[in-house]
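#onboarding

Welcome to the new folks! Below is a worked example of what a typical request in this channel looks like: someone posts a single protein sequence, and someone else replies with the predicted structure as tokens. Don't worry about understanding the tokens yet, we'll cover that in week two.

Example request:
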Amino acid sequence: MQFTTDEAGTLERILKWRRDVRHFKTDPVPETTLSRLKMAMSAAPSVGNARPWRVLRVQDLALRRAIRDEFERCNANAAAEYDDAARSEYMRLKLAGLDAAPEHLAVFTVTDPKAGRGLGRRTMPETLHQSTAMAIHTLWLAARVENLGLGMVSILEPAEIERLFAVPVGWEFSAYLCLGWPEFTDDTPLLHRVGWQENQPTDWLDR
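Example response:
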């Protein structure tokens, strides 16, 4: 299979316009669209074909409220770590789309999956978490192509999330994702727009 320069340009645009979305409309996402996103996620690479990611679609309102409470607790603790000036900047940031996003996904990594039979991860077990991260990134790009937005909520305590969801032993929390139609699209990352930090260049160093 040979790809065209036009297709390469499309991929470049998708990468440029992939954003960590915080501002969502409340309109629901059709089930047919969600099915396509599941299929796209299944195409992600994984160590030894272990497929260690497990995705829980969070529809229970009580669970969503518990996640919101945990975010608020962790966010307050995070803010307290900054000095006064930085704390003021931090508190102006919108760091989660929990209230409006129609879809919430809790993603976990199985730390000893039977699938894959251990191939490729005996010396580097962290490749299981790396596989889950690649699956999330694949979902992120697929969502963007559907004109959807996805945002990751990282200000959560993993052990508390595992407790809230009562996951099996060996499931480790990887990410909490908000998915839905963005209120607006922008090729400038939020943290650039508000002056928090610009991107650092990616350098490949010779050895």
